[in-house]
Amino acid sequence: MEHGIPEALRPRLELDLSGPDGNVFAVIAAVRNAIRQLARLDVVAKEKEAEFLARMPKIGETGVTYQDVLAICREYVNLIDTSDEEEEEITDPVVEELPGGGKVYQEE
After folding, report:
1. Least enclosed by CB within 10 Å: which of 22, 47, 49, 56?
2. pTM for the full predicted model
3. What Cα–Cα distance (Å) separates residue 67 from each residue in 50, 63, 89, 94?
4. Are β-strands 94-97 and 103-105 bridged in parallel, bridged antiparallel, or unpaired?
5. What is the domain partition of the chain in residue ranges?
6. Would you state the pLDDT for residue 81?
7. Cα-flanking dihedrals φ and ψ of residue 64, to 5°?
C-alpha cells in the first residue's frame, strides 16, 4: 500500500513554521484538517486521515526530529513555509482557512 496522497491531489498548505503555526502539534493538526477537507470533497479516501495519524511518531518517541515529521506531512500536502516570504498574490481558490491564519489551497 502506498502512503500519502498523490502529488497532483495534494492541497497547498501555507504555514509560518517559525511562528506559533510551526509548533509540531499545530502542523500535524493543520495537515489533518487538510486531509479531512479533501475526504469530505471525495478527492481522497477517508482512510487517508487515519493513515496519516498512524504514521505520526508517538509523543516521547526517541530519534524522531521535527524534519522527520515535516517529511511525512509533505507526503500528504504541499507544505509552504511562509516565514521568510514576502506577501505574494495567491490566485488558487482557498479550500479552508485555518485557525491562526493558515490556509489550505487546492492546486490544479
Report:
1. 47
2. 0.73
3. 21, 11, 28, 26
4. antiparallel
5. 7-83
6. 94
7. -110, 130
